[in-house]
Amino acid sequence: MARSTRLLLIAPAIVYLAALTQAPFVLTLWYSFQKWILTSPELGVTFVGFENYAYTIFQDVTFRTAVLNLVLITAGIVVFSLVFGMAFALLLHRKFPGQGIARSLAIAPFFVMPTVNAVVWKNLLLNPVFGFVSYFTTHIGLPRVDILAQFPKLGIITMAVWQWTPFMMLILLAGLQSVPDDIREAAKVDGADAWEEFRGITLPLLGPFIELSVLLATIYVLQLFGEIFVATQGGPGSATTTLPYYVYQTISQGNDVGTSSAQGVCAVIIASVIATFLLRLLSRTFKVSKA
Amino acid sequence: MTFRLREIGLTALTYLAVVAIFFPILWTLLAGFKTEGTAVAQPPVLFFLPTFDNFREALTNAGYLGFFVNSVIISVGSTLVAFILGIPAAFALGLFPTEKTAGTLSWVLSTKMMPAVGVIIPLIIIFKQIGLFDTIAGMVVLYTAINLPLVIWMMRSFFAEIPKDLIEAARIDGADTLRVLLGVAIPFVTPGLAATGLLCLIFSWNEFFLVVNLAGPHASTLPVYIAGFMTSEGLFWAKMSAASTLAVIPVFIAGWAAQRSLVRGLTMGAVK
Known about the structure:
The structure holds two protein chains of two kinds. By secondary structure, chain A is mostly helical. Chain A has helices spanning about 5-30, 50-60, 60-95, 100-105, 115-125, 130-140, 145-150, 150-180, 180-190, 195-220, 225-230, 245-250, 255-285; strands spanning about 35, 45.
């Protein structure tokens, strides 16, 4: 293919992506060195060097909380989704009547938009008085709890795990399908029980799929926003304020362009450390074929 | 015998687990057919005389319909634009790779990994300056950028599966690049194209962060409408459930239709 034809085919997409992702990020960097309050145009825009970063990193307690919350909530979501996703994948990989429809139903939560997820869990399921979970727990003699008020992080993690379990399950199911069944059967014939077979055979062979699912889920879950926006608005206090939600607050309520940009840059740095790790793993485990 | 029992037990456990994970959706669907009183009843009501009032109200509510139409136009529009920009690129990258291809693809992937908070502030400021803030066109422009990496990566993996001979034969017959793309390559990857389109529709339909920051009353989509139940109508569970059900049904249909290619899309083509 001629160089010019190639360029004609590829360039529009590349230029478009650069204009909408790269260029705004460069601007975010630029803004992060400015003092600029949208609601106070009389103050103008002044260059302040690293002042916004100094404030964000060394003085702003909420920023530190937001980073910590982001790490805790993301880790909780990824770990629990992986465990449940693995359980679902192992159960649904077996042949049984109704397998197709069972898989379709189990995937469904992944399609639910974040805001529906949040209104449904917050009201129909987790409402302390009228919610289904509360009915269930009080019925078996447990005390009535308002999860989103008393254990807000757990509440957010619960609704997100419900959504991300199918994601993990899908990738792990694809992994299980790539493991020849006769290898697993052979282990059983050799007298291994189910757990030994899982630990010794299935888990190691699933390794690359587990890595991939964990890293992809981490990248996506780091951006979790809709659930927090609807279910807790970052609260109570700042108990569920994560970095994306805090940036949203700083720009939409504080109208502070400089500080929110510095926070945004920090968020990108945190995410790119993880993304670099992901890309390295991806290219190692699934070689990008040149063909 | 013990083996049979174990198998039956595992199947029963599977059914139970599937019912449990699907329950929140089922419960919402049911609540949509309840009256407001039945929806909050304790103990929860499982059998009741269904009413269609909540669905009828949602579908005749001008507000709801406006958001619904916005969702349709924005997700379909952004998917189409992403196709127009992304398919030629995927075609070149998938069928005629060079030593630079891996680098280009990594770069494309890195734009997908860019957290939205890293670009949102300039986008708000620029969109307000150039009149794209709270417009359908503005949202199409943004969602195209979200869909584009997916289109490039997924379609590249489908194009790469076309036998080289097929392409060579067409070229020897004198077909130019455009004719190879439209006449040979695209017909070969139609199922992949459909799956990619459905995934783009799903992701644009559900997107929330960008739309809540960059749109207001004119260009907001269904996720924003549903979020509004938190403040104004949080107490109307039946109405909220009916509106939620209607908002997710198109995604369920698209998702189940694309189920076979879902893993490929979610892993950007890494797992087939």
